[in-house]
């Protein structure tokens, strides 16, 4: 009985009128946890009841504490008939279960009803007394911290990064139970919300147990997803990276890590990043599971694709992407080993040694009813299979680990596509507990000294390449080989030498498929997948070239399945890595060379493409230093001339051996226009409009080349659904529609956010789904951050100094070679052949901004100017040290000068792991919320747009309220994982499910740090932690 | 390809001032008239009709040149406009009780923007307010909004909003004690200026002062508001509230109703014109003092008795509700128009009124000096304001 949960219901406000006669409400509250329920008194005739209840006490196991949500129901008392429910609040008490997070949950929560939306607010106080439980066989995992952030959270230090943890739980979906026919939609929705809440609690507890087994104390990069499999059930699954984290508590350690203004971004990636690689491997093994007995699912066929972009040396010419398609039987005989996967996308200094390229795997499955929820083996087996696949691909790239790993599904009726992707990498074993890392590493470490390019160096054997690629000597250090193009799923390492700015690159693709049932359908999808992947890859490559860039970060390829089509959407951030060769142009070749007008047309197109490339280079400030051949040295032997040694790779059914190398070298990246399709492709290349001036966009955490963020941020979600005209759909028409949809959406965003110029859309996250025949839904979540155009140079300079300092402090204990790292952290690397370009290079090195403007509250926007003037003075680490003596407790309460007339505390939300111009002082726990909203009066609520608009606004409000109740003032790493929208306009009905998550944090503006440090700390800290309310 | 659904939701609610103005002015965001309620919802409208036509609001935005400035397309503008309109519709419920806007959790809006939303929502058109000023804020008046809309060129929607605002403020402060302006400010969070205007509107509506007569057309809302403020300060119960001799506190609203007792007492002033000696004495005092100082001295001298009779009779009649309503008509008829026909310069009016009020103190036979001051002090201010073309 190791825990006592205490709940107090204080008051309500803005309740709806439940009694028409009196225009008032007789409200009371039921507080339920597990099977115990308490009730408050009825507060008669008021829309603002003051219950001021006693403390309701629940004595419960900590296992229940982790699984169960606290359920608060507000009802209207009715003497004669049944009491009417006004709405509910679910409170996840998990944040109270670990000592460093929140100690109390207290504040105003929106009262939510799945039919009516938010109906007033209720003020609740929740506390937990935990007793220590030394039972080693316990089922609970209280105390394990969870973070959505995919890097080591600021104010923590990674002692050990243990590795991959995963778990899934399954259940029947209440919506599909027989009882659903007789109960109200409200009851059904609530049953679902409650079940999912329970399941995610259970899942988190189980993952926690695994972490404890591994002797870790935290999960970073925790990603939990729901699969609504309809009839066959409900799956909740999660992956994450187990770590042992140390709180940086001593001022000395604390400061450098979390705050120096220079850093701000993840401290981790700063130093030594990653790796290298220039090529991407995509594999799409496809399995079709047969009918009834899923456990026996056999693989039908496994076509596997590998494609790479290639180019050679200084000439920057590219070989065309090509593919090799081969079929083989999968052997499920892979040895069952732990997966060396990491869900992190940014890393502690020195962690990432080399990057090999993107690895991905997909599999098509047929869903069947989950017969025994306690034995979710089928789904486990499916994922295990995919992970094996990924692991073997990584091996093929000479890498022992996969970073930036993620998993997703797309479900349509009974067909389910499981996808996993990540970046093959070589890691520094120092951070890993045991020998998951082989000895080969050490030698690599040494060669690795030139930072900023080390991660680009190939991890695989040059003579034994898993696929054909053009290698050159690194343009940075000249010592190691680098590929010509690098694709990764991770964030750009902090110290990577980048030229110019980055940009969002998307590949979009639709493919029609016939409607079919069961196996036939699965097979059809399986057959389409490799082609889609190939085309997506080709598009990405073409667009990358068109931008004049040579690397992609944050690559995310989403394939969605619908009744009669498949959609592919790939997003990534293109950059020009200084270490990689200049990309070649794109050359168009016609098939019928004798036709004069055709020739003319071709040359016209060619000119347009060349112009575009030139324009883009200017736009993104890509002006790499010219390097003469002599300096580069002799070009690397052409792949064809090299003898190929085949590796014996037992695990991966090695595609490599059968790759067609005949296209190994070509003079340029050639697009052959041999049919109208290809023509379309070329056209579509040119139709992507660059963002209006003053706007940049990327899907990574930070924008390479912009480092002077100011503090204004605007997180938003935008949803669009289009209906395709149903007749005579062709692939081309589809592609065009889809392309227009995405482009128009982006244009709208630029227009809406025009007042923030100059600004950058960061972490642009597109998801596409096909809710019905002929409907395409695109959901975008991103954050717009303003930056200061004029301060780039100065900032870079101060930043460099800072990062130098910081790097040295950080690294001394972590790494053996602090010196080298320090010099790396300087943006101005020794770059002998290009001294004249030093300046430009340094100003563009993707090191994050040091200085930011801070404006903590709304009202402060007004003061922006004044602060801008002050900015120059707030830069040194000294400030930081001064700040340190201030008790952390002070920061818990938002110390931002509260605006005089605002009564609701501002809660920032961002998909990034940091807040510009501010320092995160505390993580309060994970926010993971699931809501259902349904309406039977769609028209009256403003149609589908009105309905969803209101719902999303409500979801934001509920997230903010929970964060404020925990004492926080921001959510970082916020993500909307699911937004499932269904409508039936004829019945005037609609339903929507939304799942969001993030980390609740307390942040302090750097400007306030300064104030706090110079004044009495207590003076400007308002005790406003109760729900972020400032009583005025 | 038609757009079924198209939304944008920011963590910080975006407020576009220009679009807000269009919305307040009642321009339609859809190409129907009532949002989302035709043809089975916004669905059809959003899509098909969207290509063909632009809504009024979008057309106006296009006209403002925003497309050229931003390089956006009309479709983008339409989508943006709809987003804002939806937001405003959701906010409207909260704007009806502005303190709710401050406490609500659904929209995260910076305080400065909240203030702007409220202030603009409660702002009104001069042309509109002149039409309804002093009218009973009832259903009957609401029915006339159609005509007002046609007459003023203000959209019906906007007329309704303004009318409903007046009525809502009226209802809320009607039963309240204490300063009218303070009450309005507290419950509607308006700026001082706007709260004063609303106080005037409420005061006029409550006392039903006639403002619509043709001869009053030359007066602006500002003129009336100025008078209202003076009257609230001096002629209501609240004005004497500091001396709590008030026998029963329930009796009247402090600031909204004129002080009945005071009105009753005003009858006593009649002696100033009824008593011939007193009237002559008064006239001679004024004439002596103003001789040589007034450009229109002779006209004044000739008209003195008429003017004085007019002003005192207005006071004496105020016991009847009907006459209270006609206060402004009477003032204009009895004083402003005679002055105007003799082309009195404003300064002369001022000198005259000052002297006219002050001289009464020297009338030994007159015992209601305090009453006179309370009456004339306010009236003098009002008359000066009313004397213009």
From TrEMBL, chain A:
Xref: InterPro entries: C2_C2CD5 (IPR037785), C2_dom (IPR000008), C2_domain_sf (IPR035892), C2CD5 (IPR038983), C2CD5_C (IPR057815), C2CD5_YbjQ-like_dom (IPR056430), C2CD5_YbjQ-rel_dom (IPR056431)
Domain C2 span(s) in chain numbering: 1-109
Keyword Cell membrane applies: yes
Gene3D superfamilies tied to this protein: C2 domain (2.60.40.150)
Domain of life according to the entry: Eukaryota
Transmembrane parts of this sequence: none
GO CC field: cell cortex; cytoplasmic vesicle membrane; plasma membrane; ruffle
A GO MF term: calcium-dependent phospholipid binding
Location of region: Disordered: 630-660
Cellular compartment(s): Cell membrane; Cell projection, Ruffle; Cytoplasm, Cell cortex; Cytoplasmic vesicle membrane
One Pfam family hit: C2
Signal sequence residues: none
One GO BP annotation of this record: positive regulation of vesicle fusion
Keyword field: Calcium, Cell membrane, Cell projection, Cytoplasm, Cytoplasmic vesicle, Lipid-binding, Membrane, Metal-binding, Protein transport, Transport
SMART domains, per database record: C2
PROSITE patterns in alphabetical order: C2 (PS50004)
Described purpose of this protein according to its UniProt entry: Required for insulin-stimulated glucose transport and glucose transporter SLC2A4/GLUT4 translocation from intracellular glucose storage vesicle (GSV) to the plasma membrane (PM) in adipocytes. Binds phospholipid membranes in a calcium-dependent manner and is necessary for the optimal membrane fusion between SLC2A4/GLUT4 GSV and the PM.
Protein name, UniProt field: C2 domain-containing protein 5
Biological source species: Balaenoptera musculus (Blue whale)
Gene: C2CD5
UniProtKB/TrEMBL annotation, chain B:
GO cellular component terms attached to this protein's record: nucleus
Gene Ontology molecular function: any one: fibroblast growth factor binding
Domain of life: Eukaryota
Single GO BP term: platelet aggregation
Name of the protein this chain belongs to: Acidic fibroblast growth factor intracellular-binding protein isoform X1
Organism of provenance: Balaenoptera musculus
């Amino acid at each position: 009985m190791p825990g006592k949960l205490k709940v107090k219901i204080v008051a309500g406000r803005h309740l709806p009128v439940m009694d028409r006669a009196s225009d008032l409400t007789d409200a009371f509250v039921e507080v339920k946890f597990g099977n115990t329920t308490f009730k408050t008194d009825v507060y008669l005739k008021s829309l603002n009841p003051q219950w001021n209840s006693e403390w309701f006490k629940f004595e419960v196991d900590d296992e229940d504490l982790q699984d169960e949500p606290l359920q608060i129901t507000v009802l209207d008392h009715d003497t004669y008939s049944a009491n009417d429910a006004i709405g509910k609040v679910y409170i996840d008490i998990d944040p109270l279960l670990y000592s460093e997070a929140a100690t109390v949950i207290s504040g105003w929560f929106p009262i939510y009803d799945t039919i009516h939306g938010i109906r007033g607010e209720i003020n609740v106080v929740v506390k937990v007394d935990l007793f220590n439980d030394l039972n080693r066989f316990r089922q609970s995992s209280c105390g394990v911290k969870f973070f959505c952030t995919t890097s080591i959270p600021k104010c923590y230090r990674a002692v050990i990064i243990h590795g991959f943890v995963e778990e899934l739980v399954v259940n029947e979906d209440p919506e599909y139970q027989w009882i659903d026919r007789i109960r109200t939609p409200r009851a059904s929705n609530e049953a679902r919300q409650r079940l999912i809440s329970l399941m995610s609690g259970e899942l988190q507890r189980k993952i926690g147990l695994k972490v404890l087994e591994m002797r870790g104390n935290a999960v970073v990069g925790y990603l939990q997803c729901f699969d609504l499999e309809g009839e066959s059930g409900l799956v909740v699954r999660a992956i994450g990276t187990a770590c042992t984290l140390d709180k940086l508590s001593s001022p000395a350690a604390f400061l450098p890590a979390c705050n120096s203004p220079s850093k701000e971004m993840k401290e981790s990636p700063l130093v030594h990043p990653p790796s290298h690689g220039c090529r991407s491997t995509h594999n799409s093994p496809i399995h079709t599971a047969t009918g009834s007995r899923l456990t026996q699912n056999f693989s039908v066929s496994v076509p596997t694709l590998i494609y790479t972009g290639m180019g050679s040396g200084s000439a920057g010419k590219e070989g065309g992407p090509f593919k090799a398609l081969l079929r083989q039987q999968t052997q499920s005989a892979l040895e069952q080993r732990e997966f060396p996967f990491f869900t992190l996308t940014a890393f502690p200094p020195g962690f990432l040694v080399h990057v090999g390229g993107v690895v991905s795997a997909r599999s098509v499955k047929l869903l069947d009813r989950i017969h025994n929820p306690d034995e979710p083996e089928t789904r486990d087996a499916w994922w295990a299979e995919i992970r094996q696949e990924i692991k073997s691909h990584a091996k093929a790239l000479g890498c022992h680990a996969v970073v930036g790993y993620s998993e997703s599904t797309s479900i349509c009726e009974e067909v389910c596509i499981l996808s996993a992707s990540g970046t093959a990498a070589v890691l520094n074993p120092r951070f890993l507990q045991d020998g998951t890392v082989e000895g080969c590493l050490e030698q690599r470490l040494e060669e690795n000294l030139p930072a900023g390019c080390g991660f680009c160096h190939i991890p695989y054997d040059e003579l034994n390449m898993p696929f054909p690629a053009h290698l050159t000597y690194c343009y940075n250090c000249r010592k190691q080989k680098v590929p010509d193009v690098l694709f990764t799923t991770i964030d750009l390492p902090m110290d990577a030498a980048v030229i110019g700015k980055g940009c969002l690159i998307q590949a979009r693709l639709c493919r029609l498929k016939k409607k079919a049932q069961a196996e036939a359908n699965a097979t059809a999808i399986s057959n389409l997948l490799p082609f889609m992947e190939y085309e997506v890859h080709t598009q990405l490559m073409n667009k990358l070239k068109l931008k004049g860039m040579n690397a992609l970060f944050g690559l995310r390829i989403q394939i969605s399945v619908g009744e009669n089509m498949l959609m592919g959407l790939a997003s990534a951030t293109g950059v020009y890595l200084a270490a990689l060769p200049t990309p070649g142009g794109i050359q168009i070749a016609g098939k019928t060379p004798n036709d004069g007008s055709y020739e003319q047309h071709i040359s016209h197109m060619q000119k347009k493409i060349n112009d575009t490339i030139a324009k883009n280079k200017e736009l993104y400030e890509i002006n790499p230093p010219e390097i003469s051949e002599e300096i580069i040295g002799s070009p690397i032997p052409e792949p064809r001339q090299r003898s190929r040694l085949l590796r014996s790779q037992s695990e991966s059914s090695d595609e490599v051996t059968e790759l067609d190398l005949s296209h190994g070298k070509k003079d340029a990246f050639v697009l052959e226009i041999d049919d109208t399709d290809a023509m379309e492709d070329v056209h579509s290349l040119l139709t992507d409009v660059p963002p209006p001036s003053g706007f940049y966009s990327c899907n990574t955490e930070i924008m390479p080349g912009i480092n002077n963020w100011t503090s204004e941020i605007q997180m938003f979600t935008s949803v669009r659904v289009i209906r395709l005209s149903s007749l005579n759909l062709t692939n081309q028409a589809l592609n065009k529609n889809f392309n227009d949809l995405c482009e128009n959406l982006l244009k709208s965003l630029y227009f809406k956010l025009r007042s923030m110029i100059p600004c950058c859309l960061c972490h642009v996250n597109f998801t596409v789904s096909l809710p019905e025949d002929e409907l395409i839904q695109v959901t975008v979540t991103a954050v717009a951050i303003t930056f200061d155009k004029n301060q780039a140079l100065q900032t870079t300079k101060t930043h460099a100094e800072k990062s130098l300092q910081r790097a040295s402090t950080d690294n001394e204990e972590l790494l053996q070679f602090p010196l080298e790292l320090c010099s790396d952290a300087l943006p101005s690397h020794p770059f002998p052949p290009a001294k004249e370009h030093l300046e430009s290079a340094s100003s563009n090195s993707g090191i994050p901004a040091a200085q930011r403007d801070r404006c903590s509250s709304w009202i402060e926007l007004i003061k922006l100017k004044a602060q801008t003037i002050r900015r120059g003075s707030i830069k040194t680490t000294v400030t930081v040290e001064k700040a340190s003596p201030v008790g952390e407790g002070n920061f818990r309460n938002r110390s931002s000068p509260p605006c005089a007339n605002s009564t609701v505390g501002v809660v920032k939300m961002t998909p990034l792991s940091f807040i510009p111009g501010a320092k995160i002082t505390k993580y309060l726990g994970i926010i993971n919320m699931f809501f259902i909203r349904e309406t039977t009066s769609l028209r009256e609520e403003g149609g589908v747009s009105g309905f969803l608009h209101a719902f999303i606004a409500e979801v934001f409000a509920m997230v903010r309220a929970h964060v404020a109740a925990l004492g926080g003032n921001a959510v970082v790493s916020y993500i909307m994982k699911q937004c499932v929208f269904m409508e039936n306009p004829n019945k005037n009905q609609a339903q929507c499910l939304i799942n969001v998550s993030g980390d609740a944090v307390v942040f302090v503006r750097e400007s306030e740090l300064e104030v706090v440090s110079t004044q009495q700390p207590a003076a400007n800290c308002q005790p406003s932690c109760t729900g972020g309310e400032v009583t005025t | 390809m038609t757009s079924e659904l198209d939304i944008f939701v920011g963590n910080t609610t975006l407020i576009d001032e220009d679009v807000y103005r269009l919305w307040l002015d009642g321009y339609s965001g859809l190409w129907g008239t009532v949002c989302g309620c035709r043809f089975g919802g916004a669905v059809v409208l959003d899509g098909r009709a969207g290509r063909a036509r632009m809504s009024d609001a979008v057309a106006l935005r296009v006209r403002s040149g925003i497309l050229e400035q931003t390089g956006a397309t009309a479709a983008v503008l339409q989508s943006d406009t709809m987003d804002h309109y939806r937001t405003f519709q959701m906010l409207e419920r909260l704007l009806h009780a502005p303190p709710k806007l401050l406490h609500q959790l659904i929209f995260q809006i910076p305080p400065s923007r909240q203030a702007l939303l409220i202030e603009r929502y409660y702002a009104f058109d001069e042309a509109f307010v002149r039409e309804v000023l002093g009218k009973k804020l009832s259903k009957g008046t609401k029915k006339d909004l159609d005509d007002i809309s046609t007459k003023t060129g203000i959209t019906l929607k906007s007329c309704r909003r303004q009318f409903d605002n007046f009525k809502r403020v009226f209802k809320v402060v009607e039963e309240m004690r204490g300063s009218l302006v303070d009450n309005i400010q507290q419950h509607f969070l308006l700026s001082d200026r706007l709260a004063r205007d609303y106080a005037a509107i409420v005061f006029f509506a409550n006392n039903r002062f006639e403002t619509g007569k043709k001869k009053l057309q030359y007066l602006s809302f500002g003129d009336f508001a100025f008078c209202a403020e003076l009257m609230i300060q001096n002629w209501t119960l609240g004005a004497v509230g500091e001396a709590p001799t008030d026998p029963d506190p329930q009796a009247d609203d402090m600031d909204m109703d004129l002080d009945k007792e005071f009105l009753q007492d005003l009858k006593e002033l009649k002696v100033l014109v009824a008593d011939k000696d007193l009237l002559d004495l008064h006239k001679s005092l004024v004439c002596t003092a103003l001789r040589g100082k007034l450009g229109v001295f002779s006209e004044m001298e000739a008209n003195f008795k008429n003017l004085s009779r007019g002003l005192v009779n207005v006071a004496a009649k105020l016991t009847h509700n009907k006459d209270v309503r006609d206060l402004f008509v009477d003032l204009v008829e009895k004083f402003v128009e005679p002055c105007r026909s003799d082309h009195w310069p404003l300064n002369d009016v001022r000198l005259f009124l000052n002297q006219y009020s002050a001289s009464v103190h020297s009338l030994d036979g007159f015992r209601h000096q305090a009453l006179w001051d309370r009456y004339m002090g306010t009236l003098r201010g009002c008359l000066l304001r009313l004397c213009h073309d």
